[in-house]
Amino acid sequence: MPPEPRSRVDLNGDDFARHRESRSFRPFGSQADWLWQHGRHRPPPSHLWLSITKVYGRIYLVTTIYLVQHGDKERLPGDPGLTELGKRQAEVTARWLRATGLQAVYSSPLRRARETAEPVSQATGLAVQVDSRLRERLNWDGTQAFGTFLAEWDRSTEDRDLVLSNGESSRSAGERLRLFLAGLAGGSGPVAVVSHGGVTVDLLRNLLGDEGLPPRLIADGIPPCAITTLDDLHVGGIAATGHLTGL
Description:
Helices cover about 35% and strands about 15% of the residues. It is of the alpha/beta class.
């Protein structure tokens, strides 16, 4: 049997400074610690749902956030919903999330995200809380050719400060999502947050830098219903899909 993760850690000042400056720093004894040790497809034990980390003589509450990519969507402009595959992905994801002891479910207002969040709501009995800060960086509304939309998307991905027609850039979209997640930190958890691939990658680029991301993530994006795990704003796992095995 693998050793049980530590529930807290005491660091001296030098150790804390060294760990805090590292891009890989995350609070020990949290769900991220469990995920790194035991594989991202397994829910952590219940005593790690809201972990307490003791650092430098102080107690910090650490909220685990499951940032969920919406399921496979219909290839339509405007506000498309999920395909049949996407609905199955959402159901499987909901069952996995139910085992983690969720305390809240949040969703982007776009239909594909809400249709992904609804099975989570049904599985847990938690109401979906819709928040516009979880929307995508840019959404194809059909007023321009799809090729034109893709070209604008690609330009904004390459030039992170390029302001798009909706008034946002890749960097500002990532900051929008970061501010939302920061508001959840230290609260009751874990929580599920259903959002979109573009803005999730924007967030990760802001938090980790491009060099800290898995190869091809920027080019290929986040797979449908993949789960990115954060302890507060410390990234513990990126775009995990182990819970979808067999679909």
